[in-house]
UniProtKB/TrEMBL annotation:
This is Alpha-amylase. Residues 55-402 form the Glycosyl hydrolase family 13 catalytic domain. The keyword Hydrolase applies. Gene3D superfamilies: Glycosidases, Golgi alpha-mannosidase II, Immunoglobulins. SUPFAM superfamilies: (Trans)glycosidases, Glycosyl hydrolase domain. Residues 411-497 form the Alpha-amylase C-terminal domain. Its cofactor is Ca(2+). It is an enzyme of class 3 (hydrolase). Transmembrane segments: none annotated.
Length: 707
């Protein structure tokens, strides 16, 4: 979106002291939790797996947008996390429980986790820290409140009536709970624990859902974890995703819980990554009381195991927000077993890992700590039960291990026949995991280059050696001798050599704050540049750097402040026209500065409640062209730059493009093949209202030709 600041180099050395905890609770009896569905990230079919080497996602479950922004800068970026996953950001039912966000009431991006403006600012801040953002998207259903009510942002609703969005005809007719998971139709058209099940085969419903996803994409998100995908047919998912703009940019990961049922995860491979729940179940078997050696023997756990997704399609986790409650997997309560399973997942080479990070609970319905007004209190590690597993040294530093070893083969495998294993990742890394009670003290054979390393499970390089765990010397023969204690691990990699020299490729990035500068487009310039300096630093080279569209009437640029607190700036159109505040330049402070007509304010001009994201038109165009573009303007706005924007294949003979209308009633458009052939309706252009709309042989009619 507005800008993609420099990606922070992979970590490998991030440091952080974190509380780990002892499991205090025993898993209680497990009743079906309110949610079968669960979360995580991915999207581009051509590149389905999370792009490496930064393929690890931190799932900051129930974290507020402001706290995620802080964490991106302070921890996730420096540690090398490629993605952060948010909880569902749309308006939801009210209540203190954990699952309120899984009961949508409208698609306003307003929740107890923060406002739309805070969400947008979080995305921008995470991008500046080199972390992409994935939003958990709940699209199978709306609320499960039979009595209806009022949502977080004030929207009134009934069980099957969401004024202005969905009415009764937009829901499946089953209207009772799913009872038989062996019946495909029932699973996909009846209610999941009373959650009103959307008729996702309806073109209107698909357009509404796509409008929501498009709105999140317009705020800069990089992908989605799609909730409850088993309960949406593969054809309906294709219909929805076909209406999503800029699909190739978005990473998608789908929740399809594997079970002995007719609906299988493999049905959804065409859409993106899928969570392989079987992986997490095996980790529980191994680390949760069995032995762990069988995870690495033979071909080892992964693609070759019966019923497992191929590596390129698999997203993996030790637990997620559902399974930590229903006992299907390990959870933070399992102490060392859990932490070692995380180490294994990050060190092994199957799938793209997600690290779940939520809060402690004794009642499985319990939500996070709330303020008196119902907002979630910004999480702080060590307070209110937040586990901060994503920032625990042994886990966070293994994200650096994963980055440093990405793409290497499993080498130098060893195990003791039960609960101690070790393996290398080519000449980049080596890990030993001891789930047994006694210390394993031996000489380990690695393929690492000779040198002095730190055990990143407990420490990282410092100028004089290692912060903890001592210095481990690997000889010219690749061997080293060190004990690995009971329920402990040891991991070395080439990005974490002792003393930080000769192999530590990227020093800890400087965490700092940033300022987002907004500039009004009221001058009518085609291009907007900001020429600036941070604090007393040097100026950018004139004419400065480009600003990107932010919202209607505004462009923006986020500037890293480092340790400074101010920016001095002037603006120009790139062609010699300047606004330098009458020669004085603009003095800007704070995290947001908006400049319009010579005045500076600190309010984010893009934070107003959005136009309804579902006011869009989906244009279907009948053509035999291999490539089709739509050249258009919304209402009386500006035209796209010719030849316009590409349309996506819909069904046979049709191309499609969904266009947001904002407050306008329609668009004016013409079509072309990108090579000079145009259909401009005989020179009159086409007037197209909100959709779906079909354009065929010079006529415009309402409807979806592919439904
Ligand atoms: Ca459904």
């Amino acid at each position: 979106m507005s800008d993609h600041p420099p990606v922070i180099a992979p970590a490998g050395d991030a440091i952080r002291k974190r509380l780990r905890f002892t499991a205090t609770f025993l898993l209680g009896a497990l009743l079906a939790t309110l949610l079968a569905a669960t979360p995580l990230p991915t999207a581009d079919r051509a590149d389905a797996a999370a792009p490496g080497p930064k393929d690890t996602t931190a799932v900051l479950f129930s974290w507020t947008w402001n706290a995620i922004a802080r964490e991106c800068t302070g921890n996730l970026g420096p540690a090398g996390y490629g993605f952060v996953q948010t909880s569902p950001p749309q308006e939801h039912v009210q209540g203190p429980e954990w699952w309120t966000y899984y009961q949508p009431v409208s698609y306003k991006v307003e929740s107890r986790l923060g406002t739309r403006a805070e969400f947008k600012a979080m995305v921008d801040t995470c991008h500046a820290a080199g972390v992409k953002v994935i939003a958990d998207a709940v699209i199978n259903h709306m609320s499960g409140k039979s009595a209806g009510g009022v949502g977080w942002a004030g929207s009134s609703f009934a069980h099957y009536d969401y004024p202005g969005i969905y009415q009764s005809q937009d829901f499946h007719s089953c209207r009772r709970d799913i009872a038989n998971y062996q019946n495909r139709t029932e699973v996909q058209e009846c209610n999941l624990v009373n959650l009103s099940d959307l008729n996702t085969s309806s073109s209107y419903v698909q357009g509404r859902i796509a409008g929501y996803l498009n709105d999140l994409a317009s705020l800069g998100v990089d992908g989605f974890r799609i909730d409850a995908v088993k309960h949406i047919s593969a054809a309906d998912m294709q219909g929805i995703l076909g209406k999503v703009n800029d699909r190739a940019r978005l990473y998608l990961v789908q929740e399809v819980i594997r079970a002995n049922e007719p609906i299988q995860p493999e049905e959804y491979l065409a859409n993106g990554d899928i969570h392989e729940f079987a992986f997490a179940r095996k980790l529980k078997e191994a680390f949760g009381g069995g032995t762990i050696n069988w995870l690495t023997t033979g071909t080892g756990i992964g693609s070759s195991w019966a019923g497992f997704l191929q590596n390129a399609n698999a997203a993996v986790f030790v637990d997620n927000h559902d399974t930590e409650r229903n006992g299907e997997t390990l959870s933070y309560r399992d102490g060392a077993a859990y932490d070692l399973a995380q180490v294994f997942t990050l060190a092994w080479n199957y799938g793209s890992p997600s690290i779940h990070s939520g809060y402690e609970f004794s009642n499985k319905e319990a939500g996070p700590a709330l303020a008196g007004n119902g907002e979630v209190i910004d999480p702080v590690c060590g307070q209110n039960g937040w586990t901060c597993k994503h920032a625990q040294t042994s886990i966070e530093n293994m994200v650096g291990f994963r980055t440093a070893t990405y793409g290497t083969a499993i080498t130098n495998r060893w195990d003791n026949g039960s609960n101690a294993i070790a393996f290398g990742r080519g000449d980049k890394g080596f890990v030993a995991i001891n789930r047994g009670g006694g210390s394993v003290d031996r000489t380990w054979q690695t393929s690492l280059p000779a040198g002095q390393y730190c055990n990143v499970i407990v420490g990282q390089p410092t100028s004089g050696g290692c912060s903890a765990g001592g210095v481990i010397t690997v000889g010219g023969d690749g061997r080293f001798t060190a004990p690995v204690g009971g329920n402990a691990a040891l991991a070395l990699h080439v990005g974490a050599k002792a003393g930080g020299s000769g192999g530590n490729p990227d020093p800890e990035p400087q965490p700092g704050s940033s300022m987002t500068v907004y500039y009004s487009t009221s001058k009518g310039w085609t291009n907007h540049n900001i020429h600036y300096r941070v604090g007393t630093g040097s100026w950018t080279t004139a004419p400065g750097v480009g600003m990107a569209p932010a919202c209607a009437g505004w462009v923006s640029k986020t500037v890293e402040l480092g340790s400074a607190t101010s920016v001095t700036a002037a603006f120009n159109n790139g062609s010699g026209t300047w606004d330098n505040n009458g020669g004085r330049d603009y003095a800007l402070t704070g995290s947001v500065a908006a400049v319009a007509n010579g005045a500076v304010t600190s309010a984010n001009p893009c934070s107003t409640t959005p136009t309804n994201p579902a006011t869009s038109t989906t244009v279907y165009y009948a053509t035999g062209w291999a490539t089709a573009n739509i050249h258009y303007r919304v209402g009386t706005g500006s035209w796209t730059a010719a030849p316009g924007v590409g349309m996506a294949p819909a069904c046979a003979g049709w191309k499609v493009k969904t266009i947001e209308l904002g407050g306008a009633s329609g668009i004016t458009a013409a079509f072309n093949n990108g090579s000079g052939s145009w259909d401009s309706n005989g020179g009159a252009d086409y007037a197209i209202a909100s959709g779906p709309v079909k354009v065929s042989n010079g006529t415009v009619t309402a409807g979806d030709p592919c439904s």
